[in-house]
């Protein structure tokens, strides 16, 4: 088992954002989380990094309890996040952003990894000396994914990677997700507004509502589920 | 002409010292968004550490000037960085995440605390040291006025140029510098990537203090006297330099320091020496009113 969350609760002050989350991710799986705005999807991902800290429950990653591990230590354990809104470093160059993905990585891998990134995202190689803040939204998203991959994570968290992107970029992102999983065996936890596409690429999925998991199943099961269809698929997202 | 050249030399010397101190203001502002009002007093403490170190050397009959200067620099940098670390740890870190005003008040308290501690332990009178680097070279023996550059001035300017180059290299080229800038731009994201943000902030305070320590040693060598109040004026002038250059900008702090040094030196020479501090404060007001982002600073709004 790559990741398991057992009865995890989290709060923002008085807001009870996660209410007893049980989620499991197996090695080599793509697992997706779907839910409405404010359901707690981003909070769930951030809670893996201890920000916010789980107020109850347990998070086990790769056989170790990481519930109380400080945020900056989590990356070292092998989790990388592409956060909602990308959060690239705008006043640094593309190459510096990628290098910041390697805070913990073995320096010996650097040349090979950067070459791999440039092969996957040729645009980043072209723009390597450009300030990241001046990239287009889609390019910034590629950069955020590239930066996360530079640390050679065991588990990749993607929080709404297609948000605000043109259809061509959205297709490219889902293609990358599939490639990473099929060709590199990357384990992926994916949050998407685009529930239809997310469930199609995912092995399994969870539905999150008001901080609680209300439904779980394989991608195909959830796609066929009347509740999911009513709430997330028929209404513009599909 | 000769007189002006002399002012240029004096201004560069002063400006070097302001620049070194200004870097501490600007880096701390860059990373945690607060003005460390105790920074001037950290500089003052470093000057006293230098005086103590010089006194010890004199008692030990050390006569080699390079040896003495190296020793004093190392001692002062070491202890002053420790002060910088301790100030952040005790006065600012516990307040992280609270309102913006809280650490500011804490900084002023820390400034008063440092001044009073030094006043109580070292006395309120000025402390002299025996002259360390006397004499200099006459650059130009113009009729009626000889332009001279002192050995201590050469030392100050050369050391500053070397340090600032090394520092710029460290911030722009090394992994530590990259992580430091990452914390400046997006602290939360830096932590998610594995950067130890608390430690980076500590190092930033220590580096700022170390540069202030070099300035403290220079001031001690240059003027030969220190007192517990020098941190206040030097601090405000270096702060003005940082604001003039653009608070948060490293090259800005260097440029601002240089400009403030030159302005002060020319103002004293050609206008009213008694009002030289007024010149600096006037500039501070003008910059804040007309161009708060400074010469090299970036305006607050930007596309992300
Ligand atoms: N930093 C914060 N401080 C206070 N409340 C927060 C914070 N971040 C999120 N919340 C609240 O926690 C709840 C869950 O938010 P979260 O961002 O996890 O939702 P989400 O499912 O990711 O939504 P979206 O689809 O809009 O991204 C919301 O009610 C939100 O208002
Ligand atoms: Mg979200």
From TrEMBL, chain A:
SUPFAM superfamilies: P-loop containing nucleoside triphosphate hydrolases (SSF52540). Keywords: Amino-acid transport, ATP-binding, Cell membrane, Membrane, Nucleotide-binding, Transport. One of its GO terms (biological process) is L-amino acid transport. It comes from the Bacteria. Pfam families: ABC_tran (PF00005). Residues 3-235 form the ABC transporter domain. The keyword Iron-sulfur does not apply. One of its GO terms (molecular function) is branched-chain amino acid transmembrane transporter activity. Belongs to the ABC transporter superfamily. This is Amino acid ABC transporter ATPase. The lineage of its organism: Bacteria, Pseudomonadati, Pseudomonadota, Betaproteobacteria, Rhodocyclales.
TrEMBL record, chain B:
This is Branched-chain amino acid transporter permease subunit LivH. One of its GO terms (biological process) is L-isoleucine import across plasma membrane. One of its GO terms (cellular component) is plasma membrane. PANTHER family: BRANCHED-CHAIN AMINO ACID TRANSPORT SYSTEM PERMEASE PROTEIN LIVH, HIGH-AFFINITY BRANCHED-CHAIN AMINO ACID TRANSPORT SYSTEM PERMEASE PROTEIN LIVH. It comes from the Bacteria. The chain crosses the membrane at residues 12-35, 42-60, 66-87, 149-171, 203-223, 278-297. It comes from Thauera terpenica 58Eu. Belongs to the binding-protein-dependent transport system permease family. LivHM subfamily. GO terms for molecular function: L-isoleucine transmembrane transporter activity; L-leucine transmembrane transporter activity; L-phenylalanine transmembrane transporter activity; L-valine transmembrane transporter activity. It is found in: Cell membrane. It is a multi-pass membrane protein. Keywords: Amino-acid transport, Cell inner membrane, Cell membrane, Membrane, Transmembrane, Transmembrane helix, Transport. The keyword Metal-binding does not apply.
